[in-house]
Design goal:
Radius of gyration: 34 Å
CATH topology of the largest domain: Butyryl-CoA Dehydrogenase, subunit A, domain 3
Shape: globular
Structural class: alpha+beta
Helix content: 40-55%
Number of domains: 3
CATH class of the largest domain: Mainly Alpha
Number of helices: 26
CATH superfamily of the largest domain: Butyryl-CoA Dehydrogenase, subunit A, domain 3
Number of strands: 21
Length: 828
């Protein structure tokens, strides 16, 4: 029996629309015809049909329960807001208490002209649908790769439409922040070592986004190593994107060891061609950005063999795919290497060559060449030129690290200022007359976790700036034939790349964890950022291998000083000499505030670094340790030296920068001085074991150091939000619910959760096949309540006979009047 039930009885059942049954419409009509009206409401078109059909065959299993939810819950709950105080009010209060104007600090770092250009390009990208970032966190690899292709095309169109110059393009790539097709940096250190660009040229080509490998490595290689004829043939179409290239160096079996590459290019005098071949499985080019699906050309690093002699890796321009249908050429096996930890919008690929013949013309021949017919090899110029370019690349990386650190710190500090947890009984916070929870940023442990990251960002800014100055000085001297600055600069830049990128990788993860549970969400903007930044610790030279270059130079310099040989004076020689004059020097601090003295900080870092150098030389030379057995100590030597360099450059800039000497800039100098002190003292505390074992600090002084570090955290606290604001990273770039500039963290988290595709239906796909059989199998229903809720279309409810111990009843409801509700009780 079916009878009208009481209002609100039972659960809510949402119904299928009648209209979209397609091929099942005939079955549906037949079912209606066989059923009889059992209960009719006093309104036209409202019926409940109940019947026991015995002759109809109806494909019930093809019908699925579906429902599309409203994607804006705020429409359901328009009056709901986060608990007071609001995040926007909290951040406004943070900014009001700052001791300086963050915009003034932005102008100091970037300049007003650059900021204006940055904002103009930001507005263009924010308003372009192709550059929309809102769906990134929900898309699978196929969708993101496809979107990245469209973004890449649109970026080229915007470049032409707005007549962007190289700086504009770099800004746009930075803001878009998506490493798309034809993008990878794993071979930066080798390719850029072969270039002789000035700083302006490299900045013009820099970027981390769409087609950046084509722009940053394929075209620059041709520009720097190609002859005029080769530039005319390859560079002109590349600039118009008529050919799209990548850079293929890394192999399955070799990465850091470039000299171990196995791909061969054997010169054939009879045809004036090279035979390009992959002789082993490990010779397969691997990790090549853009190669997997997008690029049609590649610069391939292969071992040049002529007249039976192996001349080592050289660059060759190789067509990979047809320009007509994009299919691989004969003799080329190419594809994508598959999913990765991050960078999954990049089609990192592999390629193998089966005796592919290419013209001799395709070997880039500005510096090295093969003579036709004879195969005679012409050698390249002074190899020292390549070190200069590597210095520039690594200085650029150090400057880039500041943005990675600043991004992580911005999200963590803003969120920590908005997030409130627990009431501090000793210092309760009030909102009006009501006691509220304490901002997480007020807890000392949180400050200890996130404030040093911000200080590291500023330290990298000043060191990157100094590295560029030294690079330019070195370029001028090399132009005059003087290479005296190069060795120290190259060694230091190698170690700095290792130290700063390792520092950034750790900082991003530390800041993510400092955001608590919400930090684990992709909406934090830190999880995916960590995934994509992580390769920086490997490409451009593995971070642990690079430190050996730094240490070798330091050990050699120390040995020369001990032997009394003449050495060029520079900051490295200066601190090593000071140590040799007084190897048992100790720290003069007697109070915690003594550690704020810049000279004391410099002396501490210098003594520790020099002691590690001296100790390593002793173990190698006197004790007979092998180099391999000393690699851990070698890494420590490089790390200590580069931490000293960061402190030196930070403190020196505060003393010498003329822009900080004016009275109106005094607030900036004060706040930056606090950042320099925090970087130095926190680093000392982190490396405390080495400062103790070198004999410079006493156990009592370590307690003073720790006490002063905590005092610095308290000093930074009022300026924390303003300090990250000064980096000027917009919401579009951060793409973070937690790091929003307006502080509306919880509103953003809710809104972004609404966009999750799984939330587009109340019942998940697969419910009928996987969940319902488990829940209802073998059950005998004594009664059920069905509620017809307010709807705008007719719906169908069905019960499958296999779910019940007795023949089932079919219930059909045709609802054409959405303003009414019907409540039925079915006793089956």
């Amino acid at each position: 029996m079916a009878q009208k039930g009481p209002h609100g009885q039972g659960g809510t059942c949402r119904w299928w629309p009648m209209t979209p049954f397609g091929e099942y419409s005939a079955h549906f009509a037949k079912l209606i015809h066989m059923c009889k009206p059992y209960y009719r409401i006093g309104l036209p078109n409202w019926y409940i049909y109940i019947s026991l059909p015995t002759t109809i065959s109806f494909p019930f299993t093809h019908l699925k329960y579906t429902h599309t939810m409203t994607t804006v819950p705020s429409a359901k709950f328009p009056n709901l807001r986060p608990a007071e105080p609001q995040g926007s009010d909290l951040l406004a209060a943070e900014r009001a208490r700052a001791s300086f104007n963050p915009y003034d600090l932005s102008v100091f770092m970037y300049g007003e002209e650059w900021i204006g250009r940055f904002n103009r390009i930001l507005e263009i990208l924010e308003n372009d649908p192709a550059m929309d970032k809102s769906k990134r966190y929900y898309s699978g690899r196929d969708d993101r790769f496809s979107h990245a292709l469209w973004s890449a095309r649109r970026m080229v169109e915007l470049q032409r439409e707005h007549k962007w110059n190289a700086t504009d393009i770099s800004i746009a790539d930075f803001l878009l922040d998506e490493s798309g097709p034809v993008c990878n940096h794993s071979d930066y250190h080798h390719i850029l070592s072969l270039m002789n660009f000035d700083a302006h040229t490299f900045q013009s080509l820099s970027g981390t986004s769409q087609f950046s490998l084509h722009k940053n490595m394929f075209m620059p290689t041709i520009m720097s190593q190609g002859t005029d004829e080769q530039k005319a043939k390859f560079l002109a179409p590349a600039q118009k994107y008529q050919i799209i290239g990548c850079y293929a160096q890394t192999e399955l079996g070799h990465g850091s060891n470039v000299q171990g590459l196995e791909t061969t290019a054997t010169y054939i005098p009879e045809t004036d061609e090279f035979d390009l071949h992959s002789p082993t499985l490990t010779s397969s080019k691997w990790w090549i950005g853009g190669l997997g699906k997008a690029a049609n050309h590649a610069i391939v690093m292969a071992r040049l063999i002529s007249n039976g002699k192996d001349y080592g890796p050289h660059p060759f321009v190789v067509q990979i795919r047809s320009l007509v249908n994009h299919r691989p050429l004969r003799g080329v096996t190419v594809g994508d290497i598959g999913p990765k930890f991050g960078f999954n919008t990049v089609d990192n690929g592999f390629v193998m060559f089966d005796h592919l013949h290419i013209p001799r013309f395709n070997m880039l021949a500005r510096f090295a060449s093969i003579k036709p017919n004879t195969g005679e090899y012409a050698s390249p110029p002074n190899a020292k030129l390549s070190y200069s370019t590597m210095v520039f690349v690594r200085a650029n990386i150090v400057m880039g690290v500041r943005f990675a650190l600043a991004r992580a710190a911005t999200v963590a500090i803003r969120y920590s200022a908005v997030r409130q947890q627990f009431v501090d009984a000793a210092n309760p916070k009030k909102h009006g007359s009501r006691v509220v929870e304490t901002p997480v940023l007020d807890y000392t442990m949180q400050q200890y976790r996130v404030f040093p990251v911000m200080a590291q960002a500023y330290a990298c800014y000043f060191t990157g700036k100094e590295m560029f100055r030294l690079y330019n000085d070195n370029q001028k001297q090399m132009g005059a034939g003087d290479f005296s600055l190069l060795a120290d600069l190259h060694a230091t830049s190698s170690g700095l790349k290792s130290l700063t990128t390792t520092m950034a990788v750790s900082a991003i993860e530390d800041c993510r964890r400092a955001c608590g549970g919400h930090g684990y969400s992709l909406f934090s903007g830190l999880a995916s950022f960590y995934q994509d930044y992580l390769p920086n610790a490997t490409w451009e030279g593995d971070n642990y291998i690079l430190t050996q270059q730094t240490a070798r130079y330091l050990l050699k310099t120390f040995r020369n000083l001990v032997a009394g040989k003449s050495v060029l004076q520079n900051p490295t020689v200066s601190y090593l000499t000071t140590y040799l004059q007084n190897p048992t020097a100790t720290c003069p601090a007697t109070t915690p505030t003594d550690f704020l003295n810049p000279e004391l900080q410099l002396s501490a870092f210098a003594h520790r670094a020099a002691h590690l150098v001296a100790q390593t030389v002793d173990q190698l030379d006197r004790q007979g340790r092998t180099w391999n057995s000393m690699l851990v100590e070698v890494n420590r030597v490089s790390r200590a030296h580069c931490q000293l360099v960061l402190v030196q450059n930070f403190l020196a800039a505060l003393q010498s920068d003329s822009d900080l000497r004016t009275p109106e800039r005094a607030p900036l100098k004060n706040v930056l001085t606090t950042q320099a002190q925090l970087y130095a003292l926190h680093t000392m505390e982190t490396e405390l074991a080495e400062f103790l074992t070198c004999g410079y600090l006493s156990p009592a002084q370590t307690q003073m150091l720790k006490s002063q570090t905590l005092d610095l955290l308290a000093a930074v606290r009022p300026d924390a939000v303003a300090l990250v604001d000064a980096f000027g990273l917009p919401d579009y770039y951060l793409n973070s619910a937690l790091g929003r500039q307006d502080g509306k963290v919880y509103e953003a988290m809710t809104h972004m959760a609404e966009q999750e595709p799984l939330n587009h239906s109340d019942v998940v796909a697969g419910y009928e096949e996987c969940i319902r059989p488990l829940v209802w199998a073998g059950k005998k229903i004594e009664g059920a309540t069905v509620e017809v809720v307010k709807e705008r279309q007719a719906k169908l409810v069905f019960l499958e006979s296999t779910h019940y111990a007795r023949p089932s009843l079919f219930v059909l409801c045709i609802c054409m009047r959405p303003e009414k509700q019907v409540h039925l009780h079915l006793d089956l």
